[in-house]
Amino acid sequence: MQLKTGQCPDCVTNHIYTEKPLIAGRCQMHYKVYRSKISKDRRLVRGLQEPRKQTHFQQTTDLYDWFENRGKELTGVCAKCNGKSCKGDPKYQRFSIAHIFPKSQFQSVATHPMNFIELCFWGESCHTNYDNQGIESVIHTPAWIAMVERFNAFEDLLTPAEKGKHFYQVFKKYAQKIPANHTQY
């Protein structure tokens, strides 16, 4: 197969005729520009017809920003054991920011400002214990009360499918059992 050569209609060269290899009647550079414009126009039309899902990069960026903003709210004290958290340590600060509802299972609230609790990572490993053992690891602690209060702020944003998940149902069941005088745990 041999490439066609000729003058690109988009090249402005002061009326000097220069032969270049052509792709669909354009030089390589103008062909790429032309195709990207068509692709962009098609994406916009498709975007009007159906909502597009976020790309992995957009989700990662949103989550990065979420962790940065939550880091500003940290107190430096674990909500469960009152141990030291990683506040102020740029490398490990996000280790003390625990999602109340796991970000992988509950994407509708993964970056909600209230979907986090400050738990230590190093000392008692409260964050790791919560991730591995679940709700039972925090149920009779002051952290549980804070988690339920925060949960009430974003519960309505959960999708019906997410409300059907086991984690939600167990969390809701235990949340309803908080005594009237819930300051005494």
Observed structural traits:
185 residues, mainly alpha, 2 domains, two-stranded antiparallel sheet, two-stranded antiparallel ribbon, 39% helix, 5% strand, elongated
Secondary structure blueprint with pairings:
Blueprint: E1 4-6, E2 20-22, H1 28-49, H2 56-71, E3 97-98, E4 117-118, H3 126-133, H4 142-154, H5 160-163, H6 166-175
Give me the secondary-structure category.
mainly alpha
Largest sheet: 2 strands, antiparallel
For the largest sheet, list the strands in their spatial order: 1-2
| Total tally of structural domains | 2
Helix share of residues?
25-40%
User: What amount of the residues lies in strands?
Assistant: 5-15%
Structure description:
With 185 residues, the chain is mainly alpha-helical. The chain has helices spanning 28-49, 56-71, 126-133, 142-154, 160-163, 166-175, and strands spanning 4-6, 20-22, 97-98, 117-118. It has two domains: 4-49, no CATH class; 56-175, no CATH class. It is built from six helices and four strands; from the N terminus they run ββααββαααα. It has a two-stranded antiparallel sheet. Strands 3-4 form a two-stranded antiparallel sheet. It starts with a strand and ends in a 10-residue tail after the last helix. The mean pLDDT is 84.
Give the gist of this structure.
The protein contains six helices and four strands. The protein has 185 residues and is mostly helical.
